[in-house]
Amino acid sequence: METWHRCPKGQKLVEEFMLLANMAVAHQIYRSFPKKALLRRHPPPQTKMLNDLMEFCSQMGLEIDCSNAGTLHKSLNEIFGTDRYAEARKEVLTNMFSRPMQALLGRCEKASLLLALDVKQKRKAIAN
Questions:
Q1: Is the distance from CB of 102 to CB of 42 less than 8 angstroms?
Q2: Boundaries of each RNB domain copy (predicted)?
Q3: For site-directed labelling of 107, which of 39, 60, 73, 83 has its Cα 20 to 30 A away?
């Protein structure tokens, strides 16, 4: 008998329910506090791992912009074309680029737990 983590369909189902639960909570928070935004605080990626990966990609002829999360996402979406293996290549590189990223800080301090900011402040924080 297979356990859920060895069953791709079961794992996908669990992931979908987790995503739906997160979305439901986000909608409830938005309805309760429409003029506030919640931001999570992640430490920056591990520099050496990210630099090594960027160098590897460059050697392979893949120019990927890692200056921020948005440009990395855009690079990964645009670089692979539309052939039948494009999605697989994107998935592999996305996985590789997730490794240098660090987990959400676990320590709860007043300033770093969740920052409740006005919407204008959120947009400014995201732009920087």
A1: yes
A2: 9-98
A3: 73
